[in-house]
Amino acid sequence: MSLILVTGGAGYIGSHMLRLLLEQGREAVVFDNLSTGSRERLPSGVEFVEGDLRSPEDVEKLFSRYRFGAVLHFAASIVVPESVAQPLKYYENNVWGSVNLLQHCLKHGTRKFIFSSTAAVYGQPEEMPVSEDAPLRPENPYGRSKLMVEKLLGDCAAAGQLDYLALRYFNVSGAHASAEIGQSLHEATHLIPNILKAACGDIPALNIFGDDYPTRDGTCIRDYIHVTDLARAHLLALDALDKGSRNTSINLGSGSGYSVREMAAAAEKVTGRKIPLKITGRRPGDPAELVASYAKAQELLGWQPESGLEEIISSAWKWQQKKPRDEA
Q1: Is 91 a catalytic site residue?
Q2: What pLDDT score was predicted for residue 327?
Q3: Domain check: are 152 and 281 in the same one?
Q4: Candidate list 90, 122, 142, 169, residue with the active-site label
Q5: Is 151 a domain residue?
């Protein structure tokens, strides 16, 4: 069985992926610069190499040391408002880092590539749920940087240099069933961690960024997928490359959308605590609604989500309650 490189493996999604790889008896090496990841997230038995994808020297040392059969590429900057304020950071990290990684994959003969992409490549779609055939019109540098990498992969595949699948995530949430790893609440930008911070009193209220969107209650609607469902999709994607499904993009979501107000109400039910709300201005680059069609994932990967919204929130709450407040 070939060795798998997991970039960004010390991060939230990457660490859940590693748990699943180990459970399946697969061998992996983690490459991470620890800018947002933590070694504490890494399960025992996984080799870790600290380095930066933007450094050709770091990546060359990595590929000279190991022979990889496949890459799971999670490493990226992912905060939409930050991408609007600091666009060059996102193009440097997400695009140049990926170019450098791809150059070394081709140089060292690693042909299988699974890319962590995003629903942000669609911008504000005209029809819901969003299929992979929807126009690609990202509205922020984060989404544009991810789309650029998808195009890079498509060009390399057209040249016969590699085979890839790009998995377009909708909102990834939740925590491992063991409650040993989850989404960090430090400087949290995603909705569920902030809802839970409001439930704990760590913040005075949940900020709702705009309540005048053209949605059923005026707040943004998003599609939420459990992080373990997401990890399972990556394993299926690796198998799909072996079976001939390749060189395309696939949505990963639940097919259902929930507004910010509805998410707060669901969290109140799970936690038994009141979630105070504060309406503030819209954030730049936020589309009103994003809900996935996962029909293509079901067809090509045999995948569908197994965890519903209440399970997502419950797992995140269990993890937060288990962690000391200064570590969560």
Answers
A1: no
A2: 46
A3: no
A4: 142
A5: yes
